[in-house]
Write a structure and sequence with these properties.
Blueprint (H helix, E strand, L loop, with lengths): L2 H6 L3 E4 L6 E6 L5 E5 L3 H4 L1 H8 L11 H12 L9
Antiparallel strand pairs: 1-2, 2-3
């Protein structure tokens, strides 16, 4: 497997149930989730926008809790295949 395949392989589009922001998601295992933002998080995610307005740097922020919950629900519903348990 090449580095590009490892980084991009298995990514699936997910729309946050809370705000509608689109991201790419890969579930490598139950606890491990890779998220790639397809937009600027500070302008597309209201949670990140609020944190940036308060002076935070998005590069230092963990992902949005609402997005994390949306992905978890989608995973339970079978929307993501777990590549390796």
């Amino acid at each position: 497997m090449t580095a590009a395949e490892f980084l991009a392989g298995g990514l699936r589009r997910h729309t946050c149930a809370s705000c509608g922001t689109d991201v790419l998601v890969k579930k490598n295992s139950g606890p491990h989730t890779s998220i790639q933002w397809t937009t600027d998080a500070a302008t597309s995610c209201p949670v990140f926008a609020e944190r940036v307005a308060a002076g935070a740097n998005t590069a230092l922020l963990d992902t949005c809790e609402r997005l994390r919950e949306s992905i978890a629900k989608a995973a339970v519903n079978g929307e993501f295949g777990v590549l390796d348990d």
